[in-house]
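Hi support team,

I've been running sequence recovery on a batch of backbones for a student project. Most finish fine, but this one hangs at about 90% for roughly twenty minutes before it completes. I'm not sure whether the input is malformed or the queue is just slow. I've pasted the structure tokens below so you can try to reproduce it. Let me know if you need the job ID as well.

Thanks,
M.K.
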């Protein structure tokens, strides 16, 4: 936290305002701003969520509802390196339990805990979507396939010794704060405005009919008819429903005559 009691320093706050400016609707910046808070604090703090709420003109409860939905936003310190080991069926059958046991012994913690020095946190992931690499592991969301208890411990030894570790895709493993900052600022340097007038994904430059507050007028028949006028455009579902009701009414009349 800064000397003035804020989570975001003046410099980081400038970055936050640039992120907000990307979106025609401020609240769309909630996720990157939460990542920005996490890049400063190491996790999403209550004070950080209040600052995000102020920037986006939302209530703290609305920001909490967003942050609590996503597992990548941590509500307590997570350590420099978050080790996620898949415990789903493929990985479990191929030895994930032994990987957990080896890492717990090496780190001196239980799954779900953080080491006393704040370097490592070990968590169980429900599915990492890499069954072909089972048992699979991630460190700050970088993949490691077909890990063994020995190879998992070796990765921890390398990181603890300050040496570079690369994932199966050759990407270097970065700290959790570095990864959070990358997630927060992804696309920040991309052009906005009228450069891509048809682009709507991400909210950078929507066409006029997708601007905030725009709602196209609906034209009704004014006579109780469904939108679109006569029954010529009605769906087969509605027509079958009418047939059912007509048959039921006829049956009721026959019962009344009897």
């Amino acid at each position: 936290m800064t000397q003035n009691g804020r989570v975001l320093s003046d410099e980081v706050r400038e970055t936050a305002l640039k992120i907000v400016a990307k979106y025609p609707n401020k609240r769309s910046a909630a996720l990157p701003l939460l990542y920005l808070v996490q890049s400063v604090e190491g996790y999403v703090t209550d004070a950080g969520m209040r600052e995000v709420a102020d920037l986006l003109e939302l209530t703290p409860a609305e920001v909490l509802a967003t942050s609590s939905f996503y597992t990548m936003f941590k509500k307590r310190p997570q350590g420099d390196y978050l080790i996620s080991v898949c415990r789903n069926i493929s990985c479990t059958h191929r030895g994930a339990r032994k990987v957990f046991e080896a890492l717990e012994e090496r780190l001196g913690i239980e799954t779900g805990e953080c080491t006393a020095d704040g370097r490592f946190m070990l968590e169980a992931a429900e599915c990492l979507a890499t069954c072909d690499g089972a048992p699979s592991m991630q460190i700050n969301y970088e993949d490691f396939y077909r890990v063994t208890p020995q190879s998992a411990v070796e990765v921890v030894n390398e990181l603890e010794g300050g040496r570079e570790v690369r994932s199966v895709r050759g990407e270097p493993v970065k700290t959790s704060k570095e990864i959070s900052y990358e997630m927060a600022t992804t696309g920040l340097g991309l052009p906005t405005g009228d450069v891509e007038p048809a682009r709507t994904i991400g909210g950078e430059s929507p066409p006029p009919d997708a601007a905030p507050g725009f709602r196209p007028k609906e034209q009704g028949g004014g006579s109780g008819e469904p939108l679109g006028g006569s029954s010529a455009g009605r769906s087969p579902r509605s027509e079958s429903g009418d047939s059912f009701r007509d048959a039921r009414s006829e049956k009721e009349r026959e019962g009344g005559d009897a």
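--
Follow-up from support: It reproduced on our side and the slowdown came from queue contention, not your input. The radius of gyration is 27 Å. No action needed from you.
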